[in-house]
Amino acid sequence: MKLSILDQSPISANQTPKEALDASMKLAQAGEALGYTRYWITEHHDLVGLASAAPEVMLSYIGANTSTIRIGAGAVLLPHYKPYKVAEVFNTLATLFPDRIDLGLGRAPGGSAEATNALSDNFLQNVYKMPQLLKELLHFLEDDFPAETEYSKVSASPLPDIPPQPWLLGTSKKSALLAAENGLSYTFGQFMSDKDGAAVVQEYLEAFTPRKQGEKPKVIVTVNAICAETTEKAEEIALSSLIWKVQRDKSEGNQGIPSIEVAKTYPLTHKEKEIIEEMRQQMLIGNPHEVKQRLRELQAVYKADEMMINTITYAPYDRINSYRLLMIE
To answer: Which Gene3D superfamilies does UniProt cross-reference here (predicted)?
Structure first.
């Protein structure tokens, strides 16, 4: 089973943003040493406790400090940007780091309405234009606009020997079918979906139309997971991220991910306890055998080629250790 890493660059209560970004780089290095297939970093805007606003910048830093692991964005939020600029940025990365760059694409705003307005004037209109924007971007990446079309004489330089590999990310039938009709690999965000994900992925597999002869559909499923030497320890570590989510929902999470000690003493209402239990059920928490078994089960249900893991902990050591335990199990 192929395993990969999704990183949101979380900021813990005892960290500066720079320390959080450095921890992301060290996580990518650890992932490479452990044999993970790829490392992706997310794009979020003005979300308290997350430092991943500019994945394209971090990928340069991470690429320069790793050598073999595939690296990419999970995902560039395309409605905010012109496809040509996205192609230029990722072609540059693919030139610097040959055959290592993934370009994950999404349509979500990635932040508040105010942050969205600060980023782009026509976000909602561009969401509706996502199919057109996507096709335009793919032509720029392949440098194959048909003759006499608007951009037929425009190249997204520098043109790498091996273009970035595009993936479409989503949680709905709409995103699955958009990936299928464009012959793109698809990543389903199980960790942020309450839909029947297996049915969504099956729609993708059945509707897939290859862009080039011989291409086959590829599926990654992304999950939240925390692994430790014992189930009890994993539950304890997971409490920090669970309490942090409750704090953020109440606009109290400005200090970042709380320590385990703070999380244990945080007062919860009956409703908040129910919310935490629901979130816990969506996560994979346990010892290496338990979490690996759940990953295998999900892979079989989704018919996934690869499982991608998002792990948020207070201590950077616990995060890397979680990934380490999963790879040696």
So the answer is: Luciferase-like domain (3.20.20.30)
